[in-house]
Fold this protein.
Amino acid sequence: MKVLIVGGGGREHAIAVKCSESKNVDKLYAAPGNAGIAKLAECVDISVMDADKLVAFAKEKEIDLTIIGPDDPLVAGVADAFKNAGLRVFGPAKNAAIIEGSKAFSKDLMKKYNIPSAAYEVFNNADDALSYLETAKMPIVLKADGLALGKGVLICNNLEEAKAGVKTLMLDKQFGSAGDKIVIEEFMTGREVSVLCFCDGTHIKPMTSAQDHKRAKDGDKGLNTGGMGTFSPSPFYTDDVDKFCKEKIYQPTMDAMKAEGRDFTGILFCGLMLTEDGPKVLEYNARFGDPEAQVVLPRMKNDIIEVMEACIDGKLDEVDLQFEDNAAVCVILASDGYPEHYEKGFVISGLETFDDKDGYYVFHAGTKLTDKGIVTNGGRVLGVTAKGEDLHKARANAYEATKWIDFENKYMRNDIGKAIDEQ
Ligand code: AMP
Ligand code: GLY
């Protein structure tokens, strides 16, 4: 089979590694890919948002399956363009990816179908939002309705902060039209867990659990980022939690989307909070998490192509999804200063150390191949993942492996997976 991966981050590199291990894949392409993916796939310089060019490329190369990694093209309907052209694609259609593209849509869906989540109100204008806040309980959470690079969520401790938040989102339009509408939501407390699920429109199968660390600095301090590291599985995601989520969250969400006439085929990412009142949905995403994919996929035993094909064919119920009985930790190596100001263009050394090491991976995110070699080219540069027989071993292995890599301004958190020590 010929397979095209759309995207060029650490998540797509993790997908590419899994595809390269599949006995079904003869040739792998990526658009645009990155310096790490280029070792496994032929990279072609087409934007993830350019549906016409992607479809034309897939036709020209006679691609058998296209996998769309990021949220933007899914929410914009790139999967639809493939389907309309009669091409096989893994990723939800636009009218299903809206579950990530609009927070108001996802909250209304959860309310209508009794899926546990925080209480909320939706506002289309700032005046109504501001007067609602006057009597609301603090802290409170404000969310831009649309996509905002994971940064459109504001946790406000008091009325003053909340009012300033409404101004930021709705009046100053810090996230553009994503803030035309906002959700104001009850503040919840508890452990966060990410569960990514394969979906075929009718059936849904959760993968092993993971936990992200979104803040830039140790101890969950600093600004929100795209994710500074992950571990899998989460020791807090117990069998009881799993049972509850399967009955009350995963399948009900799949059934709800089907009942609404929205064919969700692809990955549903459930961001959960384990509250005192049980697990509740924080958010849905319509794709693999990044860097959750970098710990979940290395532990998956199945051939990823076979699972994706079963999703497209509506036969996910026939798949026995299995994960290794071990653990994985991913530590992001970033450019110092991320997520604000940082420099790029520094040569990266030590990447080859990973070539002959079983159970160790270096996933490229912000890198570029130049005549000087592979250089840093973004805030999040690499994801270093290691497996181990348990989380403690995996964590020690991952931090050991971070020492193999060097570049100027290398920055990482030193407490990824530390929460497991509290177990
Ligand atoms: P989201 O993009 O909706 O997942 O929100 C980003 C982050 O904000 C989450 O990972 C949580 O840490 C936090 N968050 C979102 N909604 C809530 C809530 N209702 N209560 C407390 N924290 C929240
Ligand atoms: N790691 C969070 C996300 O992919 O949205």
In short: The first helix runs from residue 10 to 20. The mean pLDDT is 96. The radius of gyration is 21 Å. Residues 118, 141, 143, 150, 153, 155, 185-188, 192, 214, 271, 282-283 surround adenosine monophosphate (ligand 1) (CB under 6 Å).
